[in-house]
Structures are given as C-alpha cells and as structure tokens.
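Worked problem 6 (solution included).
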Amino acid sequence: MLKVEHVTKYYGDFRAVNDISFEIKEGEIFGLLGVNGAGKTTTFRMIMGLLDKNGGKITLDGKEIDYSQTDKIGFLTEERSLLLTKTVLEQAIYYGVLKGLTREEVETRLDEYLKEFNIEEYKDKKIKELSKGNQQKIQFILALLHKPKLLILDEPFSGLDPINVEMFKKVILRLKSENTIIIFSSHMMEHIEYFCDSLVILVNGSAVLEGKLSKIKKDYRKKNIKVIGDIDVDTISKIKGVVSVDKKREEYTIKIEDESVTKNVFKALSKCDNITKFVVEEPTLNEIFIDKVGESYEK
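Solution. The predicted structure is:
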C-alpha cells in the first residue's frame, strides 16, 4: 500500500503542496488530477524520493520511501526523457541496470514487451529514428522492465493514436490485475473515469475533491437528462432548477440542479411528440472537474 499522509512542500515562501493525504491499495488505480501548476508533478517527485518534504509522511508497504525503495517504482513522464542517440536496446540496458537488473534480464524482458507492442524490429534502432508514438511505447516499456510495485503514469497516452491507446489500456489493466499500485494522471477525464477507483483533485496544491469516484458522482447533486424527440426548448429552459438545454445531433442534454427537478421536466416532456429517449444520468467527471476547479478559483 502507498500512503501519503499530510504532506506539504514549500519552494521558498511558495507552498506548492498543502497537507494532502491519500492511500492506494494493491491492484488499485488512483487518479491524481489538477490543472497545470496544481502540484501534481511536485507530488510525484516527493513520492519517488526526488524531492524532500517539508512535512508529512510517504510510505510504501509501511516503509518511508528512500533510495532503498525507489527500485520498486516505475514512472512514465509526460515529457520525453530518452537518450536520442542510443538504440532501444542500449537505452533499456542503461535504465534496467540502474534498476538492479542484469543485462540478460533486461534483454529477455525487452523482447517480450517489444513483441507485445508490435515493435520488435525497433530493438536496434536509435531512439531519434522512431516516431513520437513509438518513442512513447519505449518510454512505457522502460517504466515496466523492473516490474515495479508502484507505477506512476503521467499523461501516458500523449502522442498515441486510438489503436495504440487501446494497446496501452490492455497493459495497464493487466498490471492492475497483477496487484500493481498505479497512480494515473491525465487531462482527459474519460480516461480517468475508465481506469480510476479513487481520485484527488488538486488546486493550488490543496485537495478540493477526493474519494471513491463512484461516491463522488453519486453525491454530486447536478444531473443530466438525455432526451431524443421533438421538445419545446423554451418551455423546458424556464422550468425552475433547469440549468441549461443543449443539443448535439439528435440528442438533447438537459442539465438540472438535482434529481427533484426530474418530475417537472418529465411532466413538460409528456406533452411533446415523438419522445423516444428519456434517461437521467450522473454528470461526467469532466463536468465535476470544471465545476470544482472553477469554484475554487472563484474563492
């Protein structure tokens, strides 16, 4: 288990991370979210032991994270961090040996992953000769070579086409099934919803929302009603508690303040013709994120 307990970090007088706490069990994928400058990267670096904390405690399986623990951590950074003039094999040996593997172990595991990612022919090619998407694959493979207990994924799908995104998803879910602890960060909220059991949203270094994703969505009062049919938009918009009415192709989305508004919307729609769909849905994580982050900035 990874535990982050009341962690704070200052850069001079600037407080980059303010008293954040969360824990992640084996086999869980945890979302660490926030806009640029929210404190995510600083938190990652403290978890990996690259930055000292000013307060609080970070433990992996009950032990404070130091250099004796860092070999248990894998990190896929958003930025490219590969040695462009090295071949894929040379790069893998460099990182693998640093993580305590033998050259033979590195090559065996590298071959397995290159085959899984369908890029076996790139083993002896220089990094600079690869496309951005294939460089991202190599960076992901390097984060996995030493079979980390804790894996940090920062914008893992950056530069990938939809086919390769699905390939990454398959590997990430397999790692989850193998009890890897995974921290996942992305600005694409649909990816967070797909993967994450729990999350925390940071604004200016502080947590503004945290907990189980299912509970966060359930407790969020605002709901969406999805409707297909010929509706009177002006009439629906005037109902008390209706926030907005939007149309995308043939489907309307009616945003409401809470579920109590549903009956009045349904009553109004019952007078309309050709209603073929009426579904009350929880809001997307993207809506909740925008609402909570915007609310915090307004304070």
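Discussion: The longest strand covers residues 14-24.
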